[in-house]
Amino acid sequence: MLDFGLDITALNQRLNIVYDWYQRTVIDQIGPPDPVSLVLGTGAPVKNNSVSETRGWELSIGWNDQLNLASKPFAYSLRFNISDYVGYVTKYSANVNGVRSGVWTPGELFGQNFVYKSGESRRIPRIWTTGF
Q: Fewer CB within 10 Å, N side or C side of the chain?
């Protein structure tokens, strides 16, 4: 895993800013099973046959302070967090040629689905936020 970060504390330790960028590679991830002959009479067993990569970032901004409220100290803290990532397949043993055939394709984003648009011969990517 690769991770770069920046932490900033300012204004008498009241303002905190944290930023992280990361890249994670998962080797031997469980993926769709390799195709087997129908003569076998059962489904293919799952196996660790793929490699995936995730890249993302995280940002956190926080504010801590104290003030007097009704002549008593009142401490409060506010925090804002936002993050984003993209995960994709880098290697899949049953699809080394990159043919889109219902199994994972190297370079395919997780959660990405392809549809055919009427009257056009090209595929249009449609990304749904349904997870993996």
A: C
